[in-house]
Specification:
β1, α1 and β2 form a beta-alpha-beta unit. The chain is 31% helix and 16% strand. A seven-stranded mixed sheet has the order 3-2-1-4-5-7-6, with helices on both faces. It is built from six helices and seven strands; from the N terminus they run βαβαβαβαβαβαβ.
Length: 188
Amino acid sequence: WQYKPNAIIETGIAWGGGLAFYNSMLMILENCGLIKERRVVGIDIEIREHTKKILELHPVLRDVSVHEGSSITDEAQSFVTEILNTISNPRPLFVLDSNHSMKHVLRELEVFSPFVPVGGYIIIEDTAIEFHRRPDRKNRWGPGNSPWSAIQQFINSEAGSCFEVAGDFTDKLVLTGMPGGVIKNVGK
C-alpha cells in the first residue's frame, strides 16, 4: 500500500492463484485512483494446460501476461522490459518463487534488481528452507543452498549493495515461510 506498485512480476506461477491475488490488489489501487495503470506478469518454466485454462477463463486473470521459460534467461528479461516499457512511470514489485536453489535465486536477483527503483521491493519466497534441516530427505535445497543464502550473498555483492532486508516488514512476521525475505532498494 505504501509503495503502490503498478506492476507485479511473479516467477513460478503454479496454478495462477498468486497472479489473481496480485491483479486484484492492483485493481483496488487503480479503482482508488492511486495508480493509473497496472500490469501483472507471470514467468514459469512450464505453464501447465490446466493453468493456461484458468488464465484464459478467470475474469481477474484475462489481462495478465505470462512468459513460458526460465526466469533467468535473456528472453525473460526482455519480456519484463517490454511490459514495463508500456507503463509511463513503472514501479515494479518482484515476487521470486520458482527454483529455490541459491544459484538460481541469486541469478534472479541479479537479473531483476536493476528494474527496482529506490524505495521498491523484491519479495523472495521460501527463505525458511535455510532453517529446516531434513536429514531424512534428499532435498534439492537446504541450508547453504536456499533463497535466504542467495539474499545474503546478493546484498553483500556490488550488484546488491543498494538493497537491504526490509526489517520493517519481515520483523513483524510471526508465522512465515519467508523470514528475511523482503528486500528494499534503499539507494545507497
